[in-house]
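Input.
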Amino acid sequence: MLAGTAAFATIGLLPAWAQQKGGTLTVGLTYEIDTMNVYSTGFLGDAQAAVVEGLLAPDKDAKYVPVLATEVPTIENGGIVVSEDGKTMKITYKLRPGVTWHDGKPFTSADVKYTWEAVKDEKFIAESKDGSAEVASIDTPDELTAVVNYNTILPTFASTLFTFGIFPKHLLEGTDLNTSSYNETPVGTGPFKVTEFQRGQYVVTERYDGYWKKAENGDALPYLDKLIFKMIPDTNTLITQLKSGEVNLVVQTPYSQAKQVEGIDDIELIKGPLLSWQHLDFNFKRPSLADIAVRKAIAAGIDRNVLIKAQGGFPEAIKSPVVPVFEFYDPNTPEVAYDPAAAAKLLDDAGYVVGADGIRAKGDEKLSYTFMVQAGRADDELAQQVIIAQLKAIGIEATADNKTGVAYREARYNGGYDLIYGRWITSADPVYSVFWGTGGANNGQSYSNPTLDAAFQKFENTLDPAVRKDAAIEFQKILAEELPTISLTTNVALIAKTKKLKNFVPNPTNMTNFVDTAAWYME
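Output.
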């Protein structure tokens, strides 16, 4: 899945071809940015990744490389030390010297410690606080050393706290992070700094001339003058602006519009890998959706082949949220095969009778549901219509109730739906408990299973690969049998970019394609 993309050395050392400074790149986003705070946003942090940096970041092969740290901590290099009883660990980060914030102040270990304190603060409303509760304390013996003392073993440390971004202590300490102007104009250490934020419209970022990274030939980075992010939730409008030249990079081109994009002069379409999958989830507050017979019937009523064909043949069928590129993917995970006759029998046996209107019901509980996807996302809206038709064939009514922007985010988190279809994209070392663990940050379904929680706990609290593999097999089996979610397809990214943009390398993780923009340049 990750093979065949262009190569670069690491995020800290980049090749030099015939780069030249200058130029503006305008990016079309398919969603409205809710906040520029990387810990608060409910969407992928595309614009944020060009502005704010973490200690580490995943590269094109989903391998972690150093950014504000000088190396990735491991047991072998002494960066990770496990306690004698095997129950806790300590991670030491050596920080990169000479790094400054966009206001010119030096980046130090005090910023790392403050980031942990700010994220774990119960008053701070974050999209996820993953990795913060597991930290017992942080020592800062000098300005370029941060020693993180964990109260447990956390193999996924690199995919949570400190990787998404570091907060500037000197600007934020003592402020309310929920209402701070930082949420619109964050100050980071990245190659670009925010100069303008118009909610629902655009973010303008400009080159930070004090950026720490250099190209192999010694050039100061970044090369581009500006990165502008335009928020265009309607994908038809997005493609129109790509054709007109108002937008020259789209990293989420709808599958259904690939042929249109291929015909645009000076635009090339790149197929990039993704650690991503599409899924249908259930709100367990609805009594019938808490009924396993109904969930199994819905699973048996959906034909993945039709979904794939409707989306240009780009996705691939999947039966587990663990995409096959990961070594802990279990090919023996059970699955519910497409069988509408079996689906109908499941519902018959469970007492859901077809009414005069063709919709099944049992007592007062009618199998009629609101069905949400993110409005304006063409691929998802198309898949939604396919699923609606397939469910109708087995006596279940689903009515589109789509939302965009903050309204979509709030509904997703708070369970403002009966059925929801969408996509998740993970880090290079995923934490799955956030989706289906009891109280998980992305668990808006009100789903809870102590046995599943225990499997997640085992998976996420050991450095032993064999134990993690066994735990992964266990949680994949539970998810397949309990069906709080139906994993449907895995994805590729169709990236439409101007041919003038060079040094662009797709990134398959949830750190987005903008995690390393410094070497991009316009020919």
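Residues 138 and 148 are 5 Å apart (CA to CA).
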